[in-house]
Amino acid sequence: MSTVLLVVLLFCVLFAVLHLANRIHRLENALVDLARIVKRPMRRDRAVRKEIEELEEELEEIGDLAVHAAASEEDFDRAQVIREKLDRRFHALLASHLPVLRKEGPSPSPSPSPM
Predict the structure, then answer these.
(1) Nearest partner of 96 among 31, 34, 52, 55, judged by Cα
(2) Residue 75: which of 87, 93, 63 has the closest Cα?
(3) Measured between alpha carbons, how far is residue 70 from residues 56, 78, 114 in Å?
(4) Most buried residue, 23, 55, 104, 114, by most Cβ within 10 Å?
(5) What is the full DSSP assignment across 38-89?
(6) What is the pLDDT of residues 18-46, one digit of tens each?
């Protein structure tokens, strides 16, 4: 009788350990997914910042040409296009950092209750 009870207890412990191992494995997968989700916006932000730096450098080069009176009409047109791109990139970067403010908006002031 005691050996049967010992075998049943052993199976219960084995089942509990396997169940715990399964839960830990699922938790690990969930954490990996969460890390991937969190990392995605950071990579996008780095790419946008790098593009902003490149556009600013190109705009500075055109500015240097203009200072030395070597800029053509095409350079000024290209500078305007670069400014528009920079504006869009700055707005994209700002929007990625302020999603909470866009969704919430201003909080309404409490209205006095009628008496």
Answers:
(1) 52
(2) 63
(3) 19, 14, 72
(4) 55
(5) HHHHHHHHHHHHHHHHHHHHHHHHHHHHHHTT---HHHHHHHHHHHHHHHHH
(6) 999 999 999 999 999 888 887 877 788 88
Please tell me the pTM assigned to this model.
Answer: 0.50
Q: What is the DSSP letter of 115?
A: -
| CA–CA distances in Å: residue 92 to residues 58, 98, 100 | 20, 10, 14
Q: Identify the helix (H) or strand (E) that includes residue 90.
A: helix 73-97
Show the tokens assigned to 7: 């075998």
Say what the alpha-carbon torsion angle 16, 22, 25, 27 is, to the nearest 10 degrees. -80
